[in-house]
Amino acid sequence: DILPPSGTMEINSNASYCNAADVMFTLNSTDSAYMSFSNDNASFSDWELYSTSKSWTLTEGDGTKTVYVKFMDYGCNKTTVNDSIILDTIAPSCNFVINSGNNYTAEKNVTIALTSTGADYMAFGNDGVTYSAWEPYSNSKSWTLAEGDGLKTVYVKLKDAAGNEDTNSDTIVIDSTPPTGDMAINNEAEHSTAREITITLTTDSA
Question: Which of 57, 83, 124, 126 has the fewest Cβ atoms nearer than 10 Å?
Answer without folding.
Answer: 57
